[in-house]
Write a structure and sequence with these properties.
CATH superfamily of the largest domain: Cytochrome P450
Largest sheet: 6 strands, mixed
Bound molecules: protoporphyrin IX containing FE, 2-acetamido-2-deoxy-beta-D-glucopyranose
Strand content: 5-15%
CATH topology of the largest domain: Cytochrome p450
Distance between the termini: 92 Å
């Protein structure tokens, strides 16, 4: 008996050693497995990926491989070499990891899912005249919501958290614009459930939910699925043309109703999960940097529509806003922190900008983290931790595009929208919504910090890698309708 047990233990240990005993070859990036078997660096990664990766960069340089929960992830932090990953979609695949996340977060499996077709279909709807139409709907929805939120007690100061205010307004307006006024739920209810879901998202993606959180996640998902059950085209204010054609395509592919609802929740997150938080950071920085606020207000005042001007004329006016654009780019530089992840399909060689070559192993993942570089790289952006609203402006007021590292002009000096073939499809729509919201808030409301000395809250460190960061606290503000006189 004792021998059997010992033999079993011995075999397990041997197996473990063989499985985890990966050796670095000379042509591979530095390998850092961490001290914990199998898990490797998973804990540090999940707690604060930015801090962990900055330490690894310090230790190993711009490229290294870490073990994270049994997987080997090669992290590349040299923006001049990003194209070697972004342009090699034949060997470095976008969709596999996307599918893993779809299953973990949304319990969604779409057998015919093809990101290239998905992307092309979506692009049509978020460009050109179709986008102009969406812009106008978004504008109307924002206006209605803002007015109804405030009219309840017209001239009195109303107090709120800025994050809550921004996220809830942009979410509800975006939801109405793209998903329509659902029949069995109000946008407020959907927002409340969505926030619960959003709070559990990083743990779902990392599969680190505790048992009671698992139950909550399932309940929240079910409630959201129910809200997103569409009754079809007879709905009063139906879903946007984009969503209608998306649903039609799923039906044509023979996707069952249950899976359709799951796919809709994924789309809800993809289209509404980042814009609200981005708006919070921008408006928060403007409130805590009066000089920046003045500059943006001055620009907006020059764009006020004339008495009786049409909506088209007004939206037309909003197109040329270099100061706003720079302030937004700067806010996003500081708070957009997605991982750009690809799976290595076949053994491949990565050619770095400095001439070095590294082998990548089939089955590993490659991960870019533009937040560390270019965005927070002190060689590219002086005092990178500071908000400077005019960082992306030339002295003549045009957009600044020349940034340098090691004497080289950068192609990628900030990457909030990703880059290459998978760059964010919705970026123009997102920018447009943020601009409309900010314009409305700044021109029609008195809005101020409750405590004029308050500072921006720090970011919730567990969200590095998942798109826009969210604050670990909130910024208390009060607002009221401007005195029309
Ligand atoms: C401030 C707001 C937003 C930010 C910071 C943002 C950021 C990003 C990033 C970084 C990616 C690239 C992921 C990668 O390469 O792996 C991405 C992809 C995507 N975004 Fe956004 N996004 C925002 C808003 C939106 C909105 C409003 C929509 C829809 C209307 C949208 C739709 C998409 C879609 C569909 C993709 C996938 C593209 C593909 O499959 O190739 N995003 N977004
Ligand atoms: C707008 O969307 C429709 C599909 O609803 C598409 O046929 C058309 O080509 C799109 N327009 C543009 C300018 O992309
Ligand atoms: C609206 O859509 C157009 C595309 O026709 C885009 O160029 C513009 O910047 C968008 N935003 C606003 C506020 O008009
Ligand atoms: C890929 O590279 C690894 C490590 O160098 C090697 O062990 C493996 O056999 C290679 N696989 C293929 C399919 O060439």
């Amino acid at each position: 008996m004792i021998w059997t047990v010992l033999l079993l233990c011995y075999t397990l240990i041997l197996l473990f050693v063989i499985l985890s005993n990966r050796k670095r070859t000379k042509r591979e990036p530095p390998l850092d497995k961490g001290v914990i078997p199998w898990l490797g660096h998973a804990l540090e990664f999940g707690k604060d990926a930015a801090k962990f990766l900055a330490q690894m960069k310090e230790k190993h340089g711009d490229i290294f491989t870490v073990r994270v929960a049994g997987r080997y992830v090669t992290v590349l932090l040299d923006p001049n070499s990003y194209d070697a990953v972004l342009q090699n979609s034949a060997s470095l695949d976008f969709s596999r990891y996307a599918k893993v996340l779809m299953e973990r977060i949304f319990l969604l499996r779409l057998p015919q899912y093809d990101p290239v077709t998905e992307r092309a279909a979506m692009n049509q709807h978020f460009h050109g005249e179709n986008l102009t139409y969406l812009n106008a709907t978004m504008q109307r929805n924002l206006q209605t919501l803002l007015t109804s939120d405030i009219l309840q007690n017209r001239m009195d100061w109303k107090q709120d958290g800025l994050f809550r205010l921004c996220y809830s307004l942009l979410f509800r307006a975006g939801y109405l614009t793209l998903f329509g006024a659902g029949q069995n739920s109000s946008p407020d209810t959907v927002y409340d459930e969505f926030r619960r879901f959003d709070g559990l998202l990083t743990k779902m993606a990392r599969t680190t939910l505790k048992p009671e959180e698992k139950r909550e996640a399932q309940l929240v998902r079910e409630r959201l699925w129910n809200f997103l059950t569409f009754m079809g085209p007879d709905q009063r204010e139906g879903p946007s043309p984009w969503l209608q054609s998306y649903l039609k395509r799923l039906q044509e592919e023979g996707v069952d109703r249950d899976t359709q609802r799951r796919a809709l929740l994924m789309q809800l997150w993809a289209t509404q999960g980042n814009t609200g938080p981005a708006t919070f950071w921008l408006l928060g920085y403007l409130l805590t940097f009066p000089e920046a606020m003045e500059a943006v207000k001055r620009e907006f005042e020059g764009l006020m529509p004339a008495e009786g001007a049409s909506e088209e004329a007004f939206l037309e006016n909003l197109q040329n806003t270099p100061v706003f654009d720079s302030a937004l780019s700067e806010a996003l530089r500081l708070t957009a922190a997605p991982f750009i992840t690809r799976e290595v399909l076949v053994n491949t060689t990565l050619h770095m900008a400095d001439g070095q070559e590294y082998d990548l192993r089939q089955g590993d993942r490659v991960c870019l983290f533009p937040y560390l570089s270019p965005q927070m790289d002190p060689e590219i952006h002086q005092e990178p931790e500071k908000f400077k609203y005019d960082r992306f402006l030339n002295t003549d007021g045009t957009e600044r595009k020349d940034f340098f590292k090691g004497g080289r002009k950068m192609k990628y000096y900030t990457m909030p929208w990703g880059a290459g073939k998978n760059v964010c499809v919705g970026r123009h729509f997102a920018i447009s919504g943020i601009k409309q919201f900010l314009f409305m808030v700044l021109t029609r409301l008195d809005l101020e910090l409750c405590d004029p000395d308050s500072e921006m809250p720090v970011a919730d460190a567990s969200r590095y890698g998942f798109g826009m960061l969210q604050p670990a606290g909130d910024l208390q503000i009060r607002y009221r309708l401007k005195d029309p006189s």
